[in-house]
Amino acid sequence: MTNACPCGSEKEYADCCSPLIKGEKPAPTAEALMRSRYTAYVLKDMDYLKESLAPEALEGHDDSSVKEWAERANWLGLEVHETWAGGEGDESGIVEFSAQYAIDDEALIHRERGEFKRIGEHWRYVDGTMVSGPPVRKERKIGRNEPCPCGSGKKYKKCCAK
């Protein structure tokens, strides 16, 4: 029987986020720190969540609201969409991710573009910007060779698509 890490890495917790959360080793990348922070939310480890913040992020940190969110949420999974820099040789990085969770049986998704920076040998979370998912097209897409909807009688590619 395995003890899969909550971060979705498909590694065992003992080989993934546990050494980071327990302070046995620093996160090697911004993504590793982000994954360990998600795992800390799942495990409700408020100390690690606070320790992994950059000094400027501590200014607006509210222990009670972070604790309330972590405790109320039923954490359902993490998906990393993209990373920019944040590697072992970088000083900063960005990780875009979605954390799925439920509160009062309502499924929710927190999608964020998180900013991280290295301070010494430790990656720290700086700030995040909420991101909406890809746009959902509700109207039918007009094909290039279809008649133009403006009524000109020309093909769309020769008319309004120019």
UniProtKB/TrEMBL annotation:
<dbReference type="InterPro" id="IPR048469">
    <property type="entry name" value="YchJ-like_M"/>
</dbReference>
<dbReference type="InterPro" id="IPR004027">
    <property type="entry name" value="SEC_C_motif"/>
</dbReference>
<feature type="domain" description="YchJ-like middle NTF2-like">
    <location>
        <begin position="29"/>
        <end position="128"/>
    </location>
</feature>
<dbReference type="InterPro" id="IPR032710">
    <property type="entry name" value="NTF2-like_dom_sf"/>
</dbReference>
<dbReference type="Pfam" id="PF02810">
    <property type="entry name" value="SEC-C"/>
</dbReference>
<protein>
    <recommendedName>
        <fullName>YchJ-like middle NTF2-like domain-containing protein</fullName>
    </recommendedName>
</protein>
<dbReference type="Pfam" id="PF17775">
    <property type="entry name" value="YchJ_M-like"/>
</dbReference>
